[in-house]
Automatic annotation (TrEMBL):
Its EC number is 2.4.2.7. Pathway: Purine metabolism; AMP biosynthesis via salvage pathway; AMP from adenine: step 1/1. Its main location: cytoplasm. It is found in: Cytoplasm. It comes from Marinobacter halodurans. Catalyzes a salvage reaction resulting in the formation of AMP, that is energically less costly than de novo synthesis. It is an enzyme of class 2 (transferase). This is Adenine phosphoribosyltransferase. GO terms for molecular function: adenine phosphoribosyltransferase activity.
Length: 180
């Protein structure tokens, strides 16, 4: 792990037993509150993608918006919001996905991308991968190409990053919390 990754990981607060016993919640608000850590986080993504001619950043509701907006600005790319169902005002495509106890849905505007656009899909964290997989399916349905799925944190023990790779997506995360 490089210096940037380690310093960002150290800035993430772990809240034990939240929202339920046994869960180690990774709280990113401490990274956002630390201007040096936040700059390092955005710089890590910018340095990764600055030479890739990215057309758009697709940011997942809601914490993905924070990273995605700063990254889109720095890369001079458009910002596309992948929202929870019922939050977008125009013609949308909807994708359902499985949760631990039920289903949820995300949506995107039908005109969010041009066919062939090169897109980075961004969220704060990859856990089980359901939301990002649903977002990836929406992006592909429009005809855009996903360059990479990216997040600040990977929780590999929950299998989400492996599921994304199994679907043919490249995955990049700044840091991971495995086995703890």
């Amino acid at each position: 792990m490089d210096y940037f990754s380690e310093s960002i990981k150290q800035a993430i607060r772990t809240v034990p037993d939240w929202p339920k016993p046994g869960v180690q919640f990774r709280d990113i608000t401490t990274v956002l509150q630390d201007r040096t850590a936040f700059r390092k986080l955005i710089d890590a993504f910018v340095h990764r993608y600055h030479s890739q001619d990215i057309d758009a950043i697709a940011a997942v509701d809601a914490r993905g918006f924070i990273i995605g907006s700063a990254l889109a600005y720095e890369l001079n790319a458009s910002l596309v919001l992948v929202r929870k169902k019922g939050k977008l005002p125009f013609d949308t495509l909807v994708e359902d996905y499985e949760l631990e106890y039920g289903t949820a849905s995300v949506e995107i505007h039908k005109d969010a991308f041009n066919p062939g656009d090169k897109v980075v899909l961004v969220d704060d964290l990859i856990a089980t991968g359901g939301t990002m997989l649903a977002a990836a399916r929406l992006i592909r349905r429009i005809g855009a190409r996903i360059f990479e799925a990216a997040a600040m944190i990977d929780l590999p023990d929950l299998g989400g990053s492996a599921k994304l790779r199994d679907e043919g997506l490249k995955v990049y995360t700044v840091c991971e919390f495995a086995g703890d």
